[in-house]
Structures are given as C-alpha cells and as structure tokens.
C-alpha cells in the first residue's frame, strides 16, 4: 500500500471541505487540519452577531461531517511551518508540535479582515470573519445597551446606541440591516429604563459613491432604498480616517459619536500563503495556475479566498463561496489526476449570480446576471439558497425554525452575555471605560 | 405617589423571577439585579455541558421575560454592599457603582458549589452551577478527546477519556449518564484516529453507601442498576481525598487516572448572605422566619437555596426549585401584605415529589412520595415536567425539537470549542500540559 497517497488539507472552510469530500471517494488518505473543531457557515455570521441565531446553528463539527469516512482524519491545531522541499507540515496542537508528511497539499485557509494598514481601525473595530468575532460583537452590543438603559446623559446614550458599519458590500448591508432590526424590534422595547426614550442609529458608511459596486445600477439604487426604508442611514463617499473608542472620524472631518464600528470593507488572504515564499498579489493573494496548482511548488494546490486567478477576460475570480467550493473540488480532482499521470483540468467558474439580503423581506438578487430581483422575491430566493446549502440536516432544520419564528414574532432569543470577563476583548473594555 | 413602595430583588433565579412576576401585578416598583442578563434553567445545565443543548436553549433574557411589565426594571451588575440600616444596596456595574434605595429587599441569589474547604478539589474540579461552568466543561471534554484521538500512549489515552463525577444526587446521576451517552453515541465513533480503539470510562463516586440518599431503597437500587446498564461505573463508599490535574485519589488509597472531575457533591449558600451580619447555619444558609423575613432586618426577605427554614417536623426544606419558586411567591405576597398592614402568611411547601433522570429513557421518580416510577415511564414524567416549566415558548419549542432529534438520532451537534484561549480557565491549561 505504499502507493496510497497522503493529502493534507489546511482549512475546513468551503474549499477544504468540498475537496475532502471529493477525495473521500478515492483511494487516498486525507488529513484535514483546522484551528477550530467545526466548519462555519460564514454567510450567516451576522445573524449570530445580531442575536438571531445560535453559534451552533451555523457551525458543524468537522468530525461529524466525516464520521463515516475512515480515510479522513482531523487534527485541531495551527500550522506553523510548511516545508515545501521536504513536503511536510508542522502543526502546533494543544499537546505540542506535530509533523506530518504529504504527497499533495491543499491550502484553503481563506481570508481575514483587511484593515489596509490602518492601525487605529484594526485596534478599535469589530471584524466579522469568524464565530468568535460574531460572539464578541453580540456581547459588545448587548453590554452597550445595558449601559444605555441606565444612562441619563442623552448625548452619552446616543453614542452608546449608535452603531456604525463600514463597507457597502453584501456583508455590510446584511449587518447594517440586521442591526437595525435588532434595535427596532427588540432592544427598543426592552431597554427603556429611563426617560427620554432611547433612539438608536445604524449608519452604513461606503467610501465609493454607490453600494454593491459590482451590481447593476438598478439594484444598487434598490438596495439603498430598501436600507433607508428599514431605518438605516446610508452615507456614500464617506471614508473613515480615524477611529477612537468613542468616535468615528471621516475624511471630510465629520465625527460620529459611537462605540461600535463593524468593519466589513475588505479582506486579505490568510497569512499562511507567506509560508510558500511565493510573490503574492493584490490583498496578499497567492497566484495559482488554472489547475489550482501553485507554480514551482511541487504537489501544492490552493483554493478559495486566498488564491488569485484571472478568468479568460483577465478579471480575477471573486472571493465568494461558490468559487471556493468549485476550486476545492477541482484541486481534489487534479491531485487524483496527477497521481494517475493524467492531464489536469482547468478552472472555469459556473456562476449562478449574486445576491445580498438587507433585512426581513428585503434583498437584491442578480440571477445568472440576467434576472434582477428586489424586495420580497429576492429575499425568498436568498432564504431558499441558504437553507439548501447549509451543512447538515439538523442544523438546517433548527436554522429554519429559528428563521420562521423570528419572521413571525421578531423574537431574538439568543441575547446572552456569557462569560463577561473572559470573552470581552480589548475593544469592549475600552468602550466600557469611555462610557463610564 | 410617595406611597408606591420600591422593591429590590437580587438574583434572577427561580425565587427572584417568581417573586418579580408576583409583584408585577401590584402597585410597586421593582428593581431586579443580576450579574447575568439572563435567567438560567439550571436543571438542564448538564445537557449544555454534554453538547446536547445550546446555551440559549436553557437561558432566557431577563428583559424579555418582563418586556411588557413597565414596573420592573433590570440592572446588570454585582451587589457589593447591603446597608440594612439605611435600606440601600450598592451595585458594581460596567460603568461603576450605583446605589439604590429599597423599602423591601429580597435576597434570592441561590447557592454555589460547596467544596467543603478542600482546596485541591476547588482548584481542579469542574462545578456545574451556571452556564459558564457548563460551557467550560464542554470545551474541556472536547479538547481532551481531540488529544486522545491522536494519542498513541494507551495509558495516557485512557486517562484523557476517563471522566469522574462526584456526588450521588440527581445532578451527579444526570451528568454521569449524559457523559456516558455523549461518549457512547458520538465521541466513540468520531474520535478514533489511531488504533487501538478508544475506550472511555465514566465513573460516579458517592461517599455514602447508596445513591439518591432521600429516595426509597427500591428507587436507589433501580437508579444504580440503570446507571450500570448504561455503562457508568458506580463506586459507593468512595470518598475523594485529593485531586491533581491528572488523578483522583480516594480516601482508601485507590487512584483513578483522569483529567476531569465534575463536582456535584454539595452546595452552599451564596456568599451574599454575609452582608446581612446574621449568623448563618449549615452550608452558610440564612435562617428565615416562616414568613420569609430575615429576623431583625426590617424590610428584608429571602427565598430559595440560600435560606434555612424547617418544616413542622423540624426538617429543613430542601434546596430545590419548587421550594425556591414557592418561597419567592410567598415573599412577594408578604411584602404587599406588610405594606398594607395585613397579617403575613407562613410558608408551607406544596410538594409533588422528586425525580432524577439517568439518560435516554432512564429515570426514577417518586411522585407525591407515593408512586414510585422507574425506567421509561419515569423518564417520560421527567421530560413532560421539564418541558412544561421551561421558560418561554420559543425556548420550549427549540428544546423539544433538540430532544426529539437527539432521541431519534443520538445527534449531539453543539460540539463547538469556541474561543480557545479566552474560555479555557485554569483547569484546562493544566490538564493540557499534563497530557502533553
């Protein structure tokens, strides 16, 4: 059995998971490494942050996903070194370092928040890239509203209840919309301990002169209109120049008094790509061949957000889940082809369109880049798509029930501030002191 | 409106919550103070610890419970001083200290784990008294099994997968049973990365010579038999004399190699009772009059686990939820009677019996101290009772769905290790180092 190849996949996101599922069908041993013991359904992170879903509704244990596939093992840990000459990977685990040899390696650790080198923003902003981010943001907002409920200083109270979201992409829109709904349907009623009544603001900042840059103009306008009809204030051409614990400063000098800045204005490739000593391109992305191979790095493939690959028109493929999935599957197939000495396939993206949701019954969708949907119909399309792709039947069922329940009642039951001291993080402590 | 009395309730457990609900019907202002922003349905904490339920399924935001009751306000914070002469309470909040005056005060902060002064146990054991405890234990067990999955040293692996529960009361039985089911139906299948196959042990230690001390002998025997038929090892007359990060030492010299000791061998009154400068009795409990008043402390009532009160036979009322509820309601009614100058009522416990669950389809119940049920019928009674009393319809629905789903599939989906560094706690780190 010396010929049974060993594949290591780093990252249990969409690219890594689909690659592993593809490889499970064949005669290879797969070691899947991740720093979490679960896969995260990232498109719904904002729903965890806004108290609509439990963390476990959008996260699924990796070992459960592969419980019947004996050829796939899982290791919980951080990769610290990739020795691409010796073909081995070093992993920092709870019990120390482990070294694992590979015949084929797939890099699929995705992307992280990009603060574009602005340290003040990085220090004070909340990202929304993983489950810890989402839980931190949830705790932060709930703690601010507990403060606001007892604050008799109107200016202070307004600052505590002003939530700023930066970035006019789908994540920014979804987050801003969900935050306003959380306030409007839940917090407004429950956090009015003192007079005068609380008024919260949710402000969406976009540096360019339109939202949803890659969408047709009609959908851009519809998205803005829907956000505003919901209650979100949209500020275009609004570039953040500085952030402190209690204010957001714009490039034109305007100041927004707020303790909460959610940053969804950009991503950069996971820093793991640096371990390959390859020159990276825009946003730290790793250039790959159309076969998903990394040039001059024998046996190494990459897929998903951390890769850079252009289509036949010279346009880079976007950092989206469908791209990651399809690249992961192609990488897996190509490893098997390479092993058998066959010709490798090249990536071509099967693209069904793009969509963004804005809140209850509000969304925009551009199906197959032909059909433009707005409002309730677009929202239904979004709902259906997300339910279909959610991993695991149990999760799908529970997410669906939570959604229907929320839709009917505006209930947001997942409003727990857990483990005050330990889950706070730097930003919380500072904001709290400022509010004091 | 000078005559509208102000009631402060400390603690949003069962006693405090039921008192507040009672007071909401009358012409009084209530301030409810708790260190968490949610009420916890404590009987199901062990299900959170064993990955069967989400934290939010057994916790409900206090503000939601009272969203329609304008006379009830909520304050998130820790009470640091009770000035019973001046009738005021000092609360440490996120934004500093707040002082609140009361006409009537209800102490209802319940109980905490009792380690009986054994520092080694306190340092290394896991309690199971609040949601943070439950989440810590969940993370700890999952991390140990991740280690065990890769351990090639059989002795080390056995220690990692040996879970010890101390205490033969209902909580100990439930926890031991649920831990074994977690292993037997989930972890066993998913954590077998290396040969030989993993064998976990769950050991229940009880210092006395029988389980469930206050139950009839027939139910005691049935409980032990059901636990053993499940797979739990029951050790009677087994007193813990020392604990280290990797072993449990019994009084007779026996040593159990284990990294996990769950301590459910006793509770003591919440330390808040010391603030009243009243002499406490067994387990630090605060003696109360049958009216739930604290003698010589004008306007102060107490209810629930932290109180000490004897029935007409001179037997102390047990520290159980139904007692807490009924005492909370009586305390609230007596405050109103005192305000109106009426005669106060005295506590008499309406007792419907006791029950303990042991696992899927296994339980014992002693209904009205007449009907003795064991096995599936007792389990159905337990299930029904808990569903009926769970707070809030949404939670009830979601808990019910999770249960039915778990029952049919043995699924345990809530197996997330979140926020590795921040939620670890001392015990985790030590265990991990030992295992290294």
UniProtKB/TrEMBL annotation, chains A, B:
Keywords: FAD, Flavoprotein, Membrane, NAD, Oxidoreductase, Transmembrane, Transmembrane helix. It comes from the Bacteria. It is an enzyme of class 1 (oxidoreductase). It catalyses: a quinone + NADH + H(+) = a quinol + NAD(+). Belongs to the NADH dehydrogenase family. GO terms for molecular function: NADH dehydrogenase (quinone) (non-electrogenic) activity. The chain crosses the membrane at residues 376-393. The keyword Repeat does not apply. Signal peptide: none annotated. Residues 6-328 form the FAD/NAD(P)-binding domain. InterPro entries: FAD/NAD-bd_sf, FAD/NAD-binding_dom, NDH-2. The keyword Transit peptide does not apply. This is NADH:ubiquinone reductase (non-electrogenic).
